[in-house]
Design goal:
two-stranded antiparallel ribbon, 2 helices, 13 strands, elongated, 11% helix, mainly beta, eight-stranded antiparallel barrel, Porin
Amino acid sequence: MKTKAALATAALGLWLAGPAAAEKKFEASLRFTPGFPLGEFGDTLDTTGLGMDLGFAYRWPGTIVSTGASFGFLIMGSESRDEPLSATIPDLFVRVTTANSLLLGHLFVRLQPREGLLRPYAEGLAGFHYLFTTTSISETGSWGGTLSSTNLDDWAFSYGLGGGVKLALLRVRSEDSSETKTILDLDLGARWLKGGRADYLKKGSVHREDGVVTYDVYNSRTDLLQAGIGLTVSF
């Protein structure tokens, strides 16, 4: 057993030390990303979005340039109510949830030092904003709809600038200690995104009366300030 444990420890050491000697070309990140609507978009929604962002990047060898893509999701407001399943089954209630959401997808070019405990970065982005509102039903007290319908959706082109800093949390050395590579970072950043015009709904925009549904539809630019805090893994 001791021999097996020693071999496993040695294998882990080689796995950490071996890649450290070669430049790591890829990064994957997961961040918590509150979103703050700006301008007329912010005046209309008057809310802060909450969501996540997933990113992938390729670091061009020997340069400070990375290219990649990121995909994010924000909840921009929701409302729920309990309703009887039907007029003929008034004693069975379901949860009806209407959620206003924003999906973000962007390609980016990032400039960032290759090494260091603190590595600031700047980036340019281009992509899209997809705004959609859905209504779903589920069992009372549960989350996530079993049936859902899209009330309204629209797309808008988006571009912008970003910046931040990465703080090294985990670093490894090569066998001869000549090189040190970061494999886990704390990522703190922000993005200013200029979004095109789109139609969308906000909390309270859906009205129901006598079996008829009507909507208060808004149209504006979809500018957004997106903050971010999370982790980045290099490999």
